[in-house]
Design brief:
By secondary structure, the chain is α+β, with helices and mostly antiparallel strands. Helix content is 25%, strand content 35%.
Length: 434
């Protein structure tokens, strides 16, 4: 197949000025202000796209996706390397780029389409089709400054696909507009692709990439980290983003914990203990109170992040009023997923035959082999008498995140198992040490 796009060892550098002079006088008199640092957005990108292929560029903000697309349209040029694109190029780089706000939609069709290389006669022949696809018949003679962002997108997309381009470049624009028009755009893109048009799409929406593209390139730190099928690359990219998000949550959790240590733990009669989530709810007589609770991982570190089958330990501290000290009590723990599904509940007396007597101050530890699948969970904590009457109930007191990187495992819990296929035997059981 004919190669339509060839990108070879492209590097792109930007100068980031600390305090750049705005006028010639400032630049001459205050030369020290013109200090800058060099930032390499792209650092050795190479790929090719065949005729009729649809390729998706994915990656976090600032990784160089849009810069790469602008170099394909020749809005920008590489600092090093080469970019070669064959045929007529149509692009949707920025919403409404090339539209004049004071001109009507009809006038902007002529202006925008002429930028893409269509003659006045060609635009006239396609005008009604463009207006019909955009569904803006009622507003086509109104100034585009009166259009909503969705109407802008409809008109811009309708013009871009009418060009009969050899290469179509799209940057994030498909995220705008209502659901029905997005579906209409997807169908049109498939139709355009079937006719042999080469498509390059930048998007954060993995479903769009999977639905339209044949291949995906994951950009990170100015390089291609992975390329391949959209489903595979998208899955790895989302997993990486989720791990990054979890690390930030863990850092925030540790920061909050360190700040709590500097606070005085003074509880009013109805106030929540400081270890609780802000959304926690409590009830009970409060004659016995849960005053502290911590979750530890298999390495003894306090955290909210756990892997499936990783050992977890809950440490709970309670204090009793003089009238409640010496009472027979029970401790209970419940786990609920963030969608409200109740996953597990247990009490200390379920595995402890003797009576538990409330001390003036006491600690309880619960060791769990966490079999929960990936998700966000909340822990309910309670101290109650032997008949279940609450001294102190805390609903959604602690948060727990469970991570598991194998999307082939589904459901609520992980169940160790053995597969036998012919003479081969496969044991699926992660060790807690992992």
């Amino acid at each position: 197949m004919e190669t339509m796009i060839e990108v070879c060892q492209v590097r792109k550098r930007f100068k980031i000025y600390f305090d750049k002079g705005k006028s010639l006088k400032e630049r001459v008199l205050f030369r020290s202000r013109n200090r800058y640092e060099e930032h390499w957005v792209l650092n050795g990108i190479s790929f090719s796209v065949k005729k009729g292929e649809a390729v998706g560029l994915i990656g976090k903000n600032g990784c160089g996706k849009s810069t790469m697309l602008k170099m394909l349209t020749k809005i920008m040029y590489p600092t090093e390397g080469t970019v070669a694109v064959k045929g007529r190029v149509s692009s949707l780089i920025e919403l409404g780029a090339g539209f004049h706000p004071d001109m009507s939609g009809r006038e902007n069709i002529y202006t925008n389409a002429s930028i893409f290389g269509l003659s006045h006669e060609e635009i006239g022949r396609r005008l009604n089709e463009i207006i019909r696809f955009s569904e803006l018949e009622e507003y086509i003679d109104n100034p585009v400054r009166t259009y909503s962002s969705g109407m802008y997108m409809r008109l811009a997309f309708a013009v871009a696909i009418s060009v009969d381009a050899d290469v179509l470049l799209i940057d994030e624009i498909l995220a705008v507009g209502d659901v029905s028009f997005q579906a209409k755009c997807f169908e049109k893109l498939k139709e355009i692709k079937a006719k042999g048009t080469t498509i390059v799409i930048v998007s954060h929406v993995m479903e769009q990439i999977k639905e339209i593209c044949d291949r995906a390139y994951w950009l990170e730190e100015g390089r291609i980290k992975e390329d391949g099928s959209p489903g595979k690359v998208g899955k790895h990219y989302l997993a990486s983003m989720e791990k990054s998000r979890m690390r930030k949550l863990e850092d925030e959790f540790q920061l909050e914990k360190s700040q709590l240590k500097t606070k005085e733990k003074e509880y009013g009669e109805q106030s929540l203990p400081v270890f609780c989530r802000k959304e926690a709810v409590q009830k009970g007589s409060l004659d016995i109170r849960i005053v502290d609770a911590h979750l530890y991982n298999s390495k003894g570190k306090e955290t909210l992040m756990f892997s499936t089958l990783e050992a977890a330990e809950l440490e709970l501290t309670y204090e009793s009023s003089p009238k409640a000290a010496g009472s027979s009590i029970d401790i209970s723990v419940g786990i609920t997923r963030d969608d409200g599904l109740y996953c597990f509940g247990t009490t200390a007396l379920s595995g402890y035959e003797d009576t538990i007597t409330a001390q003036k101050s006491g600690k309880v530890r619960l060791h769990l082999s966490n079999c929960l699948q990936q998700g966000r969970y909340f822990l309910d904590l309670a101290v109650q008498d032997r008949d279940g009457v609450p001294y102190h109930y805390l609903y959604n007191a602690l948060e727990m995140r469970v991570l598991y990187d194998d999307e082939r495992q589904t459901g609520i819990v992980f169940i160790p198992r053995v597969w036998q296929v012919g003479q081969a035997r496969y044991e699926v059981c992660r060790k807690e040490s992992e």
